[in-house]
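Quick one: co-fold with 6-O-phosphono-beta-D-glucopyranose.
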Amino acid sequence: MSVNHSDMNPTPSPCVMVIFGATGDLTKRKLIPALCNLAQDDVLPKQFAIVGFAGNDFDTASFRKMLAEEIPKFTSAPLDAKLWDWMVERIYYVKGDFQDAEAYQRLEQQISEADKKHNTLGNRFFYLAVAPRFFSSIAKMLAQCCLSKEESGHWARVIIEKPFGHDLESAKKLNHELQEVLTEKQIYRIDHYLGKETVQNVMVFRFSNNIIEPLWNRNYVDHVQITAAETVGVEHRGGFYETAGALRDMVPNHLFQLLTMTAMEPPISFDADEVRNKQAEVLHAIQPLDPEEVLTNMVRGQYGAGMIDGQRVVGYRSEPEVAPDSNTETFVALKLLIDNWRWAGVPFYLRTGKRLAKRMTEIIIQFRRTPFVLFRNTTVKNLETNRLVIHIQPDEGISLSFGAKVPGSVMKLGLVNMDFDYCTYFGAEHSTGYERLLRDCMAGDATLFQRADMVEAGWSVIQPILDVWHALPARGFPNYAAGSWGPIEAEELLERDGRSWRRPGEEEVDKRGRAALPDRAGIIT
Ligand code: BG6
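Sure, here it is.
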């Protein structure tokens, strides 16, 4: 069974997509494959064209040729030849410098030609797949050349990639500069985590299941864990990563998306601002950390050499474009409290890092223990608690663990699992994660894009941490081996509270069946 993209959403309108930085990785790895998937699912408008814009030496013919060679490497299924022929004949290229007004005239001319040829009704969106330093100057140029002007009923939108600022002040400045030349409705701040089906499903799962939502609060939930663990190192992005680090790279954007989806109040509709208001409220309710709390509730780490999947890998400081004495963190774990009626007193533990033991993004809802009274005079010593795991990637699904009686004359409890696996149930989707976001932008639905105030609210939570870390540079890096679960302090962060991170695979022992039950780690007697 395949998922119908058009279910809940308005239809995308005819348009031209202009990709700034079109010769970079994003275009061939994600954007064009995503457009092909949309075309395959018949949700891409027929009146559509793509104009690539970059400084590299291509023309339309050589750009098309390069894409024809590259795209098949990045699509999950072989490309349908007819579909590619359709796609490629609506791809154009303009060579030019992002700062050069004359290049924008050539761009304008190409957009107009594509508009006429493919009948795109004057609508256009600009995808800024470029280094962040170009964001505001491109927006300014677009305005000066009237390319972003909305007139006679046609629309013009701008998608901004992350990172959106590198601290609170720069994010505010960028918002200000963009809003000087564009309306907020024209700005689509993208976070690819929101393109993931499993992330979107958090909201659906919570608000469409009456057995879930009543339990989703401080009365029943002991704590929440959010983990985004990667096995890759910094790959070829050492230069960028040195200026970012794990905190900036992952927390105010991806992890906060997962956090707000998990913690938000029910919106009254799926209207973009209704949903985003609720997400923003969560960010505003996060208790600001004072410097003392930054030291106790935050852990940073950097990987040293180690083993990943049986292969020896170098430490962060030996990666290309990384300083040999770098103090940049590649791991971060933090404890946050959300000071509102629903979540008061429930800690949210977040962690993310590179070169960890397993690639895995998941949200854990750990429920409170039931009273022990009934088991007092039995052989049962301890009661495990219910745990809901929302697997975001690479496994996609939801599992709920609960206690069950192990068959036999002696009272023994086992922790067993109820599993829902996306792929088994719905079949594998051919998705890059960008389909939904591109489609929504073409349809004018900004629900899954970040609003200016949300970006600033996210940075406001992070800023005190950046300040303390700046004043007190990390000591003792590297402090975890590649292939481990991060520094020991991350374990201690939870142990201090009498808790522990979920060990991946912990519940999997339960799948072995009844015969294996009495010897398993999950058994509680
Ligand atoms: C990017 C970060 O935004 O997200 C990368 O810059 C990170 O450092 C990536 O690897 C993770 O995305 P995903 O979809 O692979 O979890």
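If it helps, The two ends are 42 Å apart (CA to CA).
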